[in-house]
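Contributing new records

If you add data, match the layout below exactly. Sequence lines come first and carry their own label; structure lines follow with theirs. Keep one chain per record. Anything else will be rejected by the validation script.
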Amino acid sequence: IVIIFRVIKKHISKINLSYCLGTIIGAIIMFSNGAYGNVINNQDGYRSVSQGNIIFNSIQTYIKTLSKYLFLENHFLNIFVGFICLYLIYKYFEKIKNDNLLKKSAVVCISIFICCVLSLEFYTLCINNFNLSDFYIKALFSVIYTFYWIFIFVLLFIVIFDKKVKIKLIFYLISIALIAGPLLVVNPIGPRCFFPTYILFVLFGIELFNYAFIDKINCVRNVIFIKYFIIIFILIYLLIYGFSFLVETHRNIYIKNNLDKTDLVLPKVPFVEYMWNPNPAGKTFTDRFKLFYGIEENANVIFKPYEKQ
């Protein structure tokens, strides 16, 4: 960014330079931690770097994990972006009558491919969810959705006429690839590793939507709608976490008053899909739970659905 700013604006921004130096210093401090050396040398015990045939291992990781979190489970995003792209293709043919034949052919092929993927998405959501536990089916889907986003990337160069918007959209997609790239050689990886890519995907979708429809909608009415939409979601989350907090508070009080018991029957915290392991299962996490709350090591801990006392 500093270099681009220097080329375009002919001077170096103090803010950009300060941020750049901050990230470099932060990276030096972070990677000076010995844990990262242990990861590289595969001595960490939890995290590791791929050994042996790195290319083959990276392909397997991409098919089994990366494609799943980047593309295969983002149905709404795939459909949302796909329909906007089809609309932009329609506007392209409406606006450009005598464009290059090669460009027109490419756009037609991409539009057909997008329609096929959208049909696949609706089939998956409404009729039958494919068995993605099968490696070869997952590999096929990985290839399909990789090309889906590659074609969308190519499409940006043809149907987006605003240079600033085009640069933003290209920047988002390239950033997603750069952020996800290192995950090909590091294990283990889970959903939390993909949070930055989700943010960039959302920004990409919003920018594309604004470019396609900003002149077609009543902006004031749209802003009011979004405010109500956000308020509703905040209330939903308050209910989810408020009730979960209530259950956990009751559970903590019960644990504190019954530390001498050998059998502890504890209420399950609800809405587990919004939290990380609130009701531990398996020896490792149960032992950690006991250690954290000061429960006897030999005590039997059982979790059951919450009942108001």
